[in-house]
Automatic annotation (TrEMBL):
Keywords linked to the UniProt accession: Metal-binding, NAD, Oxidoreductase
Listed name of the protein: 4-hydroxythreonine-4-phosphate dehydrogenase
Listed GO MF terms: metal ion binding; NAD binding; oxidoreductase activity
Presence of keyword NAD: yes
InterPro entries: PdxA_fam
Pfam families (UniProt xref): PdxA (PF04166)
Annotated source species: Dendrosporobacter quercicolus
Database matches in SUPFAM superfamilies: Isocitrate/Isopropylmalate dehydrogenase-like
Listed cofactors: a divalent metal cation
Family named by the database record: Belongs to the PdxA family. PdxA2 subfamily.
Amino acid sequence: MNRPVIGLPLGDPAGVGPEIIVKSLNIAEIYELCRPVVIGDVAVLEQAMKFCGVKLAVNKIAAPAEGKYTFGSIDVIDLANVDTARLQIGKVQAMGGQAAFDYIKKTTELALAKEIDAMATTPINKESLKAAKVNYIGHTEILEDLTQTKNPLTMFQVFDLRVFFLTRHVSLRRACALITADSIYEFIQRCVKALEVLGVKNPKLAVAGLNPHSGEHGLFGDEEVREIEPAIAKAKADGINVLGPVPADSVFHFALKGKYDAVLSLYHDQGHIATKMVDFERTISITNNMPFLRTSVDHGTAFDIAGTGKVSEVSMVEAIKLAALYAPSFNRQ
């Protein structure tokens, strides 16, 4: 019973979330690593099993402590908040957005109450949230508010490559303006702390360069000389094991091979392209700096194939595995 309890909110019931959950929980290895509990709607799960040709028993429970957690069945906290007769698979609709929010909210409550050890989330749809008048644009913003966490820290992982992001959803021009010595120094500290919380001892962090060849000492832009190098020098003076700036065309390769424990990417696409080119399906998002650990698939609701059973469960399986791997270290902090 030392296996961590991983909460799985069902996601948008009109998307592929229910299908990737039933496919993932049809794999015996998952139950060897953790105790998965679904927070969702039994009728939606049963519908997803029909779509996927999966036959699993449903064990309806009121709390995670009641779960059986045995391969061949699914333990479900049933919110019974979807009318499957009216649910339009593959469509934006208020019912789907509201249900998705309800699942996340309930899972968050369980995590804050220490009834589950981590959360592995499935896709939600921004337009469906808006249709339901749920005023958030995504998981991170919902969790930030529900947990009263300021500026959660996102890390991507694919195999042994871990990547943090200095800037994310801003224009490239704006991202360059946000690359300052102060912001880099702060992020180096946050990244190293996050790695330690996940169980990485004395983590070695590489900071990616911004310009080609990290600027060649000012020949191709002066951001490295003016902002990035001073921040790294300051962090090193504090005893932090950080290197760089390392040219972006090589730093991710070396990190994947084990030279660095993680890379601080300076803008959204720099790190996203690097991880997703290694393995698109196995690139998992991990949210740090919250009261509990959250992992997530890095794909959307895939409305175009929802209800067909064609969706791959690989990303969900990896999200559950990473939640199970890191939860013990995270929760010891």
